[in-house]
Amino acid sequence: MKKNMLEKVAKVGAIFATVVIFTLLIAKCQMEYQIAGERICRQTSSGIEMSNIGVALIENDNTIAYKAFSTEETWNEKEGTLLANLAGEGSNKIITPGKKYEERLCIGNVGKTNQYVRVNIHKYFTTQEGEKSLELNPEMIQLNLTNLGTDWLVDENASTEERTVLYYKYPILSGEQSAIFSDKLIISSGVLDELKSESTQKEGRTVITYQNRYGNMIANLIIQVDAIQEHNAESAIWSAWGRKVTIVDGILSLD
Question: pTM for the full model?
Fold first, then answer.
């Protein structure tokens, strides 16, 4: 990763503080497909066959991650990178503080059975070596959430400063997509104001150097998708995710 890829330079007096914000943007899909702990099966002329299930994370109309069950004992899955068109190496991308990036995210049902979905959004900062920072504010990583209340529900009991948990109110039919749950991503320009000073003695003078607390840090945004079958979904969600929900006429609400 090139150290000279600077996105913003903030001048402080006669001293320059450089700010390089890298991002680790990962998309994951998981399947929880069970009734009271048992996988659902369907009867065929040749015996019992696993239902064909699958879920995908769709970014700006492109499928970037998925997990699907095709045949018994066989899963097809892929982890993807969000905003893959950004400059940078691999899943580490460079992002400009304050700039709005289009980030329309929704969930697709790529299986053959209807399903309810849950989305976990994780945000935090790490060093270049991967050490998680407990001091830097994850709210500087701003994924703008949309369609809250009308289509998506925030599980306030399970959400924290670093994690937001969303439930889709409706079953996603086979071959269809949910409403989007986000429309843009921003690393707050507030990171440019987060300076720390260091005093040193040089030739009998006190030299104060300013550095940005977020400089060369990695902003981690990880989207994890879970899906569960529509049939007997209340019990299945409680068994798999430990969350009490009520479903009336197909519409899910959080208890």
Answer: 0.78
